[in-house]
Write a structure and sequence with these properties.
The chain is mostly helical. About 80% of the residues lie in helices and about 5% in strands. The two termini are about 15 Å apart.
Length: about 240
Amino acid sequence: MNKHLNELIELSKNDQAIDSYTPQLEAADKKVAKIQKKIDTAQGEFDDLTSGIAQNEEKVKSFNEQLTLLHEQLSLNVQKAKEITTEKEMKALSLEEDIAKEKMTFANEEIERLEGINVTKGELLEEVSETVKTLTTQFDEVVKEVSVVKEEIEKSKGLLFKKREEFTRNIEQKVLAFYEKIRIWAGNSAVVPVKKQACYGCYMKLNDKTYSEVIKAEEICNCPYCGRILYIEPVSAETA
């Protein structure tokens, strides 16, 4: 087999091994992101409940201030009633009192309603708070677990990168540049085997002439359809 072809096959397999860790790293990050999303959702619910309770408390405060003013108004009306001299003034005062009492009734009902809502929200707030605490604990555990996994992966990748450096030092630069150019678009399938007379990169069947050249492996052969570097695996070569 051509020396350079053999070097590229080994380099390609090493690059494939490096790239094989990418899904594992992505899975680890997704595991952390998944629980982080749950925490964000729970925290958002917690914030909404807290905000809702605060708004209702402000409304209750406003209604209480209104009740205070209405009580003062009714007290003043008692004094005014003593000074009334005509029936028209009495009717006007009576209407004013009725309106004030209606406002007081509405204010008291709203206070009761809002306080009831806040009781319910308060109970939900406690539940959500516990959920956030539980998820935060789980998050810390997952982060530790993932950190260990990623550390092991990085160690393994480090060894493979070291091996890659050794490969690239020994490969002729023109050949290496040719490989890297293909790898830009083909990724870790820049060098692929030929099986059943088909390129295992694009799965197109090779003509007899190209197939024969690949079997001989005297030169680096490219797939005429996709441009990937082709080779025959030992078992396939014996079969051929």
